[in-house]
Amino acid sequence: MTDIFGVPLPALMGQLTLGLISGSFYAMLSLGLAVIFGLLNVVNFTHGAQFTLGAFGAWALLRYFGIPYWGSLVLAPLLVGLIGVALEKTLLRRLYGMSDLYQLLLTFGMALVFEGLLAILFGSSGMPYDNPMPGGFNLGFMFLPYYRAWVVTFSIVMCAVTWFAIERTRLGAYLRAATEKPELVRAFGVNVPRMITITYGMGVALAALAGVLAAPMDQVKPSMGTGLIITVFAVVVIGGMGSLFGAILTGFGLGIIEALTKVYYPQGSSVAIFLIMTIVLLLKPSGLFGKAQ
Question: Model-level pTM?
C-alpha cells in the first residue's frame, strides 16, 4: 500500500474527498455572501440560517408534499429566496445608507429568530433525509459515493454559472451598475430597488441551495448552519470581500487545506482557516483577490 508522507493513499484520498465536499459548501455559501456584500455592501449574518432553511425546505417538501430531492433543488432555493426578498423589502431596505453595524445587528438577530422558530416547530434533534443517490464508484484505492461526487460536480457548475451570470452577462452588468451608480442607471429607466432586491434574493437562494445539497449528508437540524457561517465569513475575508472569483477559489482551496491538516496535524484542523485568515489580513488586508479601498 502506497504511503504519502507516512499516510496510506486510501486514507489521504478519502480526506481529500471530504475536503472537496467541505470546499463545495464553503464556495457556494461564500459566493452568496460575496454577491450580497460585493453588490449591496450588506454583511449578511442571516446566511447560515438561510442555509438551514434550504435544508428544512427540502425535508418539508418531501415529508409533507412528497416532492423528492430533485424537485427540492429548484423549489427550496426559490422559496427561501422569496423569504429573503421579503426580508430585504421590509427590513434591510430601511437600513441602506446607515452604519454597517445596524445591518450586522439586524441580520444576526434574524438568524437567531429563524433558528429559534425552527427549534420550536421541529425540535432541536436532527432529522434524517434519505440519500437520493445510493452506491458509489470503486476506484480501487477508495470507494467514492455517487452523492459526494454529485455534490462536488454540481457545486463547481453552479459557482461557474453564477460567476458568469454576474460578470459576463447584460443582467449582471445591470446588477453591478444598479448598486455602483444607481442615479445613472435610474436615468436609463431601470428599476434600481428591484435590481437590488433580485441581487439579495440571488445570494439567499445560493445559501438555500447549499442547504439542500447538505440535507442528505447530515442531520437536518436548526443549528446546522450556525458554526458553518463563521468559517464561511473567514473564507470570504481571505478571498476578498466582494470578490466572486476569490470566494469560489478560496472556498475550495481552504476545504482541501483543512482536510490535509486533519491528516497531518489533527490538533490544528479547527484553527487552520482562521490562522490563514490572520496571516492574510496582516499581509493583505483587502484579501487575496479583493480590491484595496
Answer: 0.92
